[in-house]
């Protein structure tokens, strides 16, 4: 029953994200029960068709940057100038809102700059030996580069349009000018900017992805970038048409250095690290909280998570319980360890103080207010990121300004109203008692034994879980408890699934999510095995189109 | 979802890229002295209907006696023309859907909305060009941007209920919610110190040709992809096509004709998070400041400032403790916030709040008018040559009523409008208002939108 409630809450959270008009509540005494359609587990299985639709996705800024790096060897990160990406279910996907003219202008600017730079290294990109007709060379370039940029071979119409563009410009200038303009056009084409999976067949139909579509999903999932030539060759040869071929491709990709980009991308988004880059609490935290420290915090977590995955073994255990991490000089101060000789190094942090990403300075800093710790944010973080449960927002009538800082009281005491006022307690019992377990970590994640005049009381309690309920003392105990929980491990598998599909799981995905989890568990919770299993899943390899109108 | 610093940084970078940019150089005051000021039109949208008895002003011998909602405009009331009684008749008589979305899609198009998702009655799109875009195509050719669409937390990351401006049937232009992106868009390639006559060079002409051929290739691809997508995704290609069209128009437009001395790039201050509910007042101010400068620099003459969207669920925490709630989720929850409040208009407490919210919008209009009035032009101010049209997607939010929609015309275009009065046109179709606006801007058409609702032509008695 409890787990069904949570599924309902999760569905509810998704509904909130997309703005549906449904009632919300946390359960418990006096609170309204969530009103969610879908019925019980059996009914869900009955409608499970193995796949739910994936809306059209536009490249995120990170994907664009990585893609032009791989296509054009450009490492200037031009997409950093684009407007922010839209995140759905915690992961950037750009799959809902249409673009504005300002964004399209940025695409034009970036394409022009990139094409102009490409013009300067044409010998590498579009060589044309002395004496060969330029038109032949241009045709070869359009074919090879076009295949990489559009992530499939060009069709005849596309090819001839690009050749016409080339020829027109080449006649006005020269070979290089024509190539430059063709690149400009390709980088602004929807075939490049969007991950197009056309609707085919009757309405409400499911179809297997083509090899090229699957190659595209795979590469943006595993590498956060565009497919390489080999992956497109796999697609062309039909090697991606069966799960074992997809598995071979995924395993090759996981051994490629680009896999680090994919792993880091997942953790940056899952753990909400982007919020740190824009956190505006510098003044309150004093001179110690410099931009250098902020970016070092992010770097630490990204390096650590990549290490946790690539070291093999039980990734979840490492993520949640490790007492070692990567630090540089500014971070060494936060953690109270000697600074490494240079740059970042992996070090053992002071014993008994740290528990994997849960207590990373990055995570602790994101989950605070400007001038104090926030048990609410920290508790909600655990509930949502590691248990995949969703806490609804407070009712509109509630004043959400945190209680005033009072030197005579501890943070824990100041938040007592949440437990005594029944209108707060229903939801806050889901968050605050977990958050209190983090009281040893101050607003930038340094370990503290006292808060003002009081010794820290970090006794917290987990509740409403399948297998992790009970009191605990401090985040280290919490980490061990979470790592031992199947519910947590299932949640992490779900988070990867959301990342892979760019949307939250829906009814139709249940079989795929369950299969991915089984493989994850069977292989000792090595995240690389989870990645392979998701790539092989039915949901990942199929497209579904729910409504269909006549083409206009 | 914070925006960060990319806006101005990119602007500076774009100056460095002068060679790849079409030089944009304003003509200076010398020119302005010899020609009449341009006519300008700005649409100012707020949502969820109004509370009519608190909105409707009266007249006495001294002129307008303002209502509680309009009270922030007291000092500017001689510049107001309040128009009462208009219906979205086309929606009432022909509409497939009558909710918020239908109002949003009919307000500036004068046509019924088309439902695009049989399973979701809220999803609809407009079936014709909107009046701002129609006019931009006729009078926007002389400026860098034919039109400018600014949002204040307008889209809800969905494709419906979002756009007011349409280039044609089902072809929305998405409003830009980032002031930093708007800044970039307006002032990209802008050289405030440029001298007349230096605008076009041989290189620039060649670049223009290049861009045209690239964009037409992009348009072809967009259309090809659009045809192959499921219905729910097609709007993404439509909006992208609109954006490409807008850029294409702006490539070849002129460089303005009447740059006021006040033309300068505003300072945007510390970057704001775009989707934080409580940033709405600050974001609104930035968007209004930018719109005024875009007009003052004569970079555009047609604009839209869109507060939220039809059925906006913003929370007006800044209006008092009774409005306070969680900012983080406010804009994603249609069951709460402004929209839910509008559905409880019968309840006196909610009603009082709705009056307060609408009064806040009037304050925003007052601010915007004040900024326009602060820009001197042709012996008066820019407010004398800019008509601001405050309108709503509904008459009453709670009942989704399309009757008695609230229209306020503010400012003027060359003394054409008889301001300082209340005009009533009970049960007249709002198409007549759209026609009135066309005529005011020098486009003397007989119909706008659905021709069935234009029979009596422009509203009578509003203009001299």
Secondary structure: elements and pairs:
The complex is a heterodimer of chains A (552) and B (464).
Chain A: H1 2-17, H2 41-47, E1 57-58, H3 61-72, E2 87-88, E3 91-92, H4 101-120, H5 122-125, H6 134-150, H7 156-172, H8 175-188, H9 190-193, E4 194-195, E5 205-208, H10 211-222, H11 229-236, H12 243-255, H13 259-270, H14 274-277, H15 282-285, H16 291-310, H17 315-321, E6 324-327, H18 329-335, E7 345-348, H19 361-366, H20 375-386, H21 411-414, H22 417-420, H23 422-428, H24 432-435, E8 450-451, E9 454-455, E10 459-462, E11 470-473, H25 474-483, H26 486-501, H27 510-522, H28 527-536, H29 538-541, E12 542-545
Antiparallel strand pairs in A: 1-4, 2-3, 5-12, 6-7, 8-9, 10-11
Chain B: H1 6-16, H2 29-34, E1 40-45, H3 52-55, E2 58-60, E3 63-65, E4 80-84, H4 89-94, H5 100-107, E5 113-115, E6 124-126, H6 131-139, E7 148-152, E8 165-166, E9 172-173, H7 179-187, H8 202-228, H9 231-252, H10 280-296, E10 302-307, H11 337-342, H12 348-373, E11 376-377, E12 380-381, E13 386-391, E14 407-411, E15 421-424, H13 431-440
Parallel strand pairs in B: 1-10, 1-13, 4-15, 7-10
Antiparallel strand pairs in B: 2-3, 4-14, 5-6, 8-9, 11-12, 13-14
Helix pairs in contact in B: 1-7, 7-10, 8-9, 10-12
Description:
- The complex is a heterodimer of chains A (552) and B (464).
- With 552 residues, chain A is mainly alpha-helical.
- Helices cover 52% and strands 7% of the residues of chain A.
- In chain A, the strands form 6 sheets. In chain A, strands 1-4 form a two-stranded antiparallel ribbon.
- Residues 1-25, 27-49 and 548-552 of chain A have low confidence and may be disordered.
- Chain B is an alpha/beta fold and 464 residues long.
- Chain B has a single domain (6-189, 202-453), classed as Alkaline Phosphatase, subunit A (3-Layer(aba) Sandwich), CATH 3.40.720.
- In chain B, 35% of the residues lie in helices and 12% in strands.
- Chain B is built from 13 helices and 15 strands.
- The longest helix of chain B has 27 residues, at 202-228.
- Classes of the chains: A mainly alpha (552), B alpha/beta (464).
- Chains A and B meet through strand 2, helix 4, helix 7 and helix 8 of A and helix 1, strand 9, helix 7, helix 8 and helix 9 of B.
